TrEMBL record:
Residue ranges constituting the PX-associated domain according to the UniProt record: 24-149
Molecular function GO terms recorded: phosphatidylinositol binding
Organism this protein belongs to: Cercophora newfieldiana
Domain PX: 194-394
Protein known as: PX-associated-domain-containing protein
Domain of life: Eukaryota
Region Disordered: start-end pairs: 1-21
Length: 731
């Protein structure tokens, strides 16, 4: 508890000591904080569960499980209730997606996910760094948890909001108000229909109202902050930019435009499918003639792009492996042989070694070599141990890419190509209508232009010598004339390119009324899942004692789930309630601090942005650099960073304390390279630390998860089953 209290004292106002006997009724602020804690924990727990291939089999509809006799059925207790609810509520009813055959989900898609799970891709714990998959998985998780909270708790209903009021687009509070007003009218008003009608009539959807215009600014700033966090603050950012550049160069934009020139829609779709999915391998010919069965029939263009990118990536890691193997002062050959042999072992052996490393506080290399030859560690110097870690990390990276390529590009039967072909078939009627009435070549060119602009924006920017702002320390001495891309740069990127999106929406809405009406109906049905009135309370709210249980800080509490959480808390043993309340109160204060910080950061960006989002020609470079924001709004950023910081990482010495993601922040996995434009640019680790200087540290809420986590998961499964039963009865 001393560490928790120290953190709270450093970042938040100290909470008053709990009463001798904890109250049985939670206030609205406490319910709101409890809801946030449990959804945050459960969402990422579900993501982590997908490392096991049985998770997808027990997901429930639309994926299937098979018993020992081969009988297929849908699991009744979902292994991922939050993800399943999101998929069923929003994704599956989407036009085009709803036309996919059942086999797409429980054969093709499920098969690919199972292959990837069985591949046992590497862990951040072993590699000693937060890799690309960890970065993107945690990012997706925090976005998903926000949507799931909306589905579970719902949006409170208020009187109708007027959208033509005076919204000052230079004030963060007004942008936030416009966003809240717009969301309320989307869910409870007629804004969905109005936006579709506006898109059909005008080429700029922001012309609808001042609220929509301000809400668009709100979205752009948050999106720019998210992209900046991925590509600038994350150590994986320059590496991801390199992958984007590779893919951008491999996409045959010219061939795609030529194919789209074909006037007949059926011929065009067939030509595009052939371009992307036709296989030219010898196995394809021999299978077609019946000379072989299920022989490797080669790769199509789409798979070749994936395979080439992964192969290029692996080549960099192979250089690291070769360098260490040829080093005259490197580890002994028997050391490297033991590591290579260990990489190919089973999942069970890997998990056993990892658990041994955790409990003994030994590096994973120490465990591997100790198991192979107990006395081999004595001859290993500190430098050789470091090289072994680098060697092991590079081997894992190579294996990861080979396994991903195998699952997507070299499987027989080829589930990936079949899935793409079925997806094209499901969207066939939409593609035909678009091709018939819209010149798609214009939008392919727009996409190509945007990606090129994005790549250029993500590169280091020229500035002047003698930068006076506090980001100067983030730049390498050899590059005093450059600065990292700022959030304002990405805001400008989206602002100057938003007309491409608006033009696309206008052409579809005005030229393809059947598609417009189809998506309008889906949107109107989808926003209803965020209405609180759609949910019947699972359990009654206990009667509050006089003066207890109500406050004005969080009027929404946990929304439609308030009674559920109150019932769960009431069942907590009395001895656990006080520590649970201490953690919940600390988290409530933390959320309030994050909201205040988010608005302050957004205001800072607005103050830096000239009208229109483009830097003025006469702005001095020194002034531009001093206005470059490296932190932006969005509570999701702090929750995302918390997931990364809490990641457990193995010691980097033979015997020593376990590390966390916070300790390796900014460290790129061994063997990874970055794009040429970023090699002499900024230091993400320094920038990330600067961006978090004003952020409060999250309190330790492990006691809440321990007391209520599994009960909350049971509640979600029950709610999901009730919702499925209600949907089936209405059908």
């Amino acid at each position: 508890m001393s560490e928790v209290n120290h953190t709270e004292a450093a970042s938040l106002e100290a909470c008053p000591p709990p009463a001798t006997e904890a109250p049985d009724i939670l206030t609205s602020s406490q319910l709101h904080a409890l809801f946030d804690i449990l959804t945050h924990w459960e969402t990422y727990a579900e993501v982590e569960r997908f490392k096991d291939s049985t998770t997808i089999a027990h997901y429930g509809y639309p994926f299937m499980r098979r018993d020992s006799a081969g009988t297929a059925s849908y699991a009744t207790r979902s292994s991922a209730p939050l993800l399943a609810d999101l998929l069923r509520s929003i994704v599956l009813p989407l036009p085009g997606v709803r036309d996919l055959p059942p086999e797409f989900w429980h054969v093709r898609f499920q098969g690919v996910l199972t292959k990837l799970s069985d591949a046992e891709l590497s862990e951040s714990y072993d590699k000693g760094a937060l890799g690309t998959r960890k970065t993107l998985a945690t990012a997706a998780s925090v976005v998903h948890e926000a949507v799931s909270r909306g589905i579970l708790g719902g949006l409170p209903r208020h009187p109708k909001r007027g959208l033509n009021g005076p919204y000052d687009r230079a004030k963060a509070a007004d942008l936030a108000a416009a966003w809240n007003d717009g969301v309320h009218e989307l869910v409870y008003g007629s804004l969905v229909d109005e936006l579709f009608s506006c898109a059909a009539q005008r080429s700029n959807i922001e012309d609808h109202s001042p609220a929509v215009q301000a809400a668009a600014d709100y979205v752009i700033i948050h999106l720019a902050t998210f992209i900046h966090h991925v590509f600038v603050l994350s150590p994986e950012g320059p590496y991801l930019l390199k992958l984007v550049e590779y893919i951008h160069k491999l996409i045959p934009y010219t061939m795609i435009r030529q194919t789209l020139r074909i006037g007949n829609a059926a011929t065009m779709i067939s030509g595009m499918t052939r371009l992307l999915l036709a296989k030219m391998g010898v196995g394809a010919v021999s299978n077609w003639f019946g000379l072989t069965q299920n022989a490797d029939d080669g790769m199509n263009l789409l798979q070749r792009i994936i395979s080439l990118v992964l192969s290029w990536d692996s080549s960099e890691f192979r250089k690291t492996v070769d360098k260490i193997e040829k080093s005259t002062r490197g580890p002994l050959k028997e050391h490297l042989a033991a590591i290579r042999e260990y990489v190919g072992r089973s999942r069970l052996e890997h998990e056993s070694s990892r658990n041994k490393s955790v409990h003994s506080h030994a590096s994973i290399i120490a465990v591997i070599l100790g198991n192979a030859s107990p006395g081999s560690l004595e001859s290993l110097s500190a430098s050789q141990h470091s090289q072994c870690l680098e060697y092991y990390s590079a081997l894992l990276a190579i294996r990861d890419r080979e396994e991903i390529a195998k699952a997507l590009c070299r499987q027989s039967p080829d589930l990936f190509s079949q899935a793409v072909r079925e997806a094209v078939g499901a969207f066939d009627h939409i593609i035909r209508s678009l091709h018939e009435k819209i010149d798609l070549r214009e939008h392919v060119s727009a996409a190509e232009t945007f990606v090129a602009d994005f790549i250029e924006t993500s590169r280091a920017k020229k500035t002047a010598n003698g930068i006076s702002n506090n980001t100067a320390t983030a730049f390498k001495e050899s590059q005093a004339k450059t600065r990292a891309p700022s959030i304002e740069d990405y805001v400008s990127l989206f602002r100057r390119n938003r007309h491409m999106l608006y033009n696309w929406l206008h052409q579809v809405a005005s030229q393809c009324p059947e598609i417009r009406d189809d998506f309008r109906a889906w949107a109107n049905d989808t926003v209803k899942v965020f209405r609180q009135s759609r949910r019947v309370p699972y359990a009654p709210i206990p009667e509050a004692a006089p003066g207890a249980g109500i406050d004005t800080q969080r009027k929404g509490a946990a929304g439609a789930l308030s009674s559920n959480l109150q019932a769960l808390y009431a069942a907590v043993p009395a001895s656990m309630k006080s520590p649970v309340l201490v953690a919940v109160d600390a988290h409530a204060a933390y959320l309030t601090a994050l909201e205040t910080l988010s608005l302050r950061r957004m205001q800072h960006i607005l103050d830096d942005m000239p009208e229109g989002g483009i830097l003025a020609v006469d702005d001095k470079l020194e002034d531009v650099a001093s206005k470059s924001s490296i932190s932006g709004p969005g509570m999701f950023l702090s929750r995302w960073q918390q997931l990364l910081d809490d990641t457990v990482v193995a010691p980097d010495v033979p015997s020593g304390p376990l590390r966390s993601g916070r300790d390796v922040k900014g460290s790129l996995a061994e063997g990874k390279t970055v794009s040429a434009a970023a090699k002499d640019g900024w230091d993400p680790s320094v920038l990330a630390k600067l961006a978090e200087m004003d952020a409060p540290r999250p309190p330790d809420v492990g006691v809440v998860v321990e007391a209520l986590g599994h009960q909350f998961r049971d509640l979600l499964v029950d709610l999901l089953n009730r919702k499925s039963a209600d949907g089936a009865s209405r059908t």
